[in-house]
Amino acid sequence: MDWNEALSVLGIDAATPKKKGRRAYLKLLKVHKPDSDPEGFMRLRQAWEAFEDQVAWRGVAPAEEPVED
User: Fold this and answer.
1) What does residue 28 show for φ and ψ, rounded to 5 degrees?
2) How many CA atoms lie within 13 Å of 2's alpha carbon, on the beta-carbon side?
């Protein structure tokens, strides 16, 4: 899965900090559960891994914003 496709699946953009990207992944994980939607789950997982790889490759994630609980 390429970078743009991963961003599209996660519903985020290239400037999204890793924490917000993870939040988007976890939110979508509630919809694409492995037992009820295995294909959707695999696509989502691939998107998350592509996002994580790209953030790691850049060396530094975009400025992280404070997380409010």
Assistant:
1) -70, -25
2) 2
